[in-house]
Design brief:
By secondary structure, the protein is α+β, with helices and mostly antiparallel strands. The chain is 33% helix and 20% strand. The mean pLDDT is 97.
Length: 393
């Protein structure tokens, strides 16, 4: 198991929950699989019940009695769907508020894994089904000391690689040597490997109109030749090559010169940058004051500034995402657009702040990572907050 029963019970008590019911069926609930350390065949429904008081229970089908083997607690089995309901009723007797991987109105889809029919079944037993969202964040998205230190190291590495990429673009432009977006992307990947970093997907290198697509992917067949006097966006994410290392994820922007930056481009860049800073300020000040800061508030701080500048319709994604050993993790996202993120920022978690403005002719994004340290304060890796467009020439 990822956590001890004692740790889980302490968190259940803190949240006023009577237990956590982890539902397993095939590959439908990655949270349960991760928490319980499950692998292999899971073709029949099973449940693992962790009550705030009392012994845990393993409820499994008789044809697969070993799915939850090794987990602490009492063994129970069922055969028919009627006996499943009877065993669930006996197991949950006396429980009032039970956590499951469910989100009311699907507001937080990253924790909504249990199907509606199973939720109906548990509710039919006169049990209130509550979201396990805060449990998931606490047990699936928090970092240990080495992970936090590794993130900060990786973030500084990304900063330096991004600077090198803009310098490389400038050298090719100055010498007249052809360089495509894809070529620069491949150079960044080589730098990752040279510096002991790994990634799940190649970085984004996007010039001009391509930067207007938040998920643009340069390829050998579809890649622009870098030109002078163009906006250039580089989004890169990676983690150290070590077990349980966590990601850093940054977006940097430059101007390929040598001409002056047009006023409209400078203005849009400053709006994007200032939106990032507004979101960061809300996080820093809120955590320093010891108040609950929810992900949706952080999103609104950035989004309100962009709205007031007249570009609200061009900010088409959430402000930031949770990060862990995967780049998009199970903690609180900075989101009041795609979802309604009501979870608070908690110590030892990591997330991005990355507002953007996306137009057909060009796009802007400025991305930093924010680590909430063990003391509950916001930390941003040294030198990773970009304030001015990088001049390539």
């Amino acid at each position: 198991m990822k956590a001890s029963i004692k740790e889980i019970r302490e968190k259940l008590q803190e949240l006023g929950l009577d237990g956590w019911l982890l539902y397993v069926f095939r590959d439908t609930n990655p949270v349960a699989d991760s928490m319980l350390g499950l692998q292999g065949l899971r073709s029949r429904r099973c449940f693992y019940w962790i009550p705030v008081k009392g012994e845990p229970v393993r409820l499994q089908h008789r044809i697969e009695p070993h799915t939850l083997a090794g987990l602490p607690g009492e063994d129970r089995s069922y055969l028919s769907y009627t006996s499943l309901r009877e065993e669930l009723a006996a197991m949950l007797a006396g429980a009032g508020r039970v956590a499951m991987e469910y989100s009311p109105m699907a507001e937080i889809p990253t924790v909504s894994w249990v199907d509606g029919g199973t939720i109906d079944l548990i509710r039919s037993l006169r049990v209130e089904v509550c979201s396990s969202a805060e449990l998931v964040q606490y047990f699936e998205a928090t970092l240990d000391d080495e992970q936090m230190e590794g993130h900060l190291r990786a973030a500084v590495q990304l900063r330096d690689i991004a600077a090198g990429a803009f310098a490389r673009a400038g050298e090719h432009l100055a010498s007249g040597q052809a360089l495509k977006e894809y070529d620069l992307q491949q150079w960044i990947l080589q730098e990752f490997d040279r510096r002991g970093l790994q990634t799940d997907h190649p970085p984004i290198v996007a010039q001009g109109p391509h930067a207007g697509d938040p998920h643009y992917e340069p390829s050998p067949e579809h890649s622009a030749l870098l030109e002078k006097d163009q906006l250039l966006l580089i989004d890169l994410w990676a983690r150290e090559k070590a077990d349980h290392a966590v990601y850093a994820d940054e977006t940097w922007m430059g101007w390929t010169g040598p001409g002056p930056v047009p006023e409209v481009i400078q203005t849009r860049w400053e709006i994007t940058r200032d939106a990032r800073e507004a979101a960061l300020a809300l996080v820093v000040e809120g955590l320093q004051a010891g108040r609950r800061v929810e992900g949706r508030e952080v999103d609104r701080a950035a989004r309100d500034l962009i709205d007031k500048a007249g570009y609200g319709e061009a900010f088409i994604h959430r402000t930031g995402h949770s990060m862990h050993t995967v780049d998009h993790a199970n903690g609180a996202n900075m989101d009041d657009l795609e979802s309604r993120e009501t979870r608070p920022l908690i110590p030892r978690t990591l997330f991005s702040i990355e507002p953007g403005i996306y137009l057909p002719e060009m796009g802007f994004r400025s991305e930093i990572d924010v680590l909430v340290d063990a003391e509950g304060q916001a930390v941003v890796a040294e030198g990773t907050r970009q304030f001015d467009l990088i001049r390539c020439l």
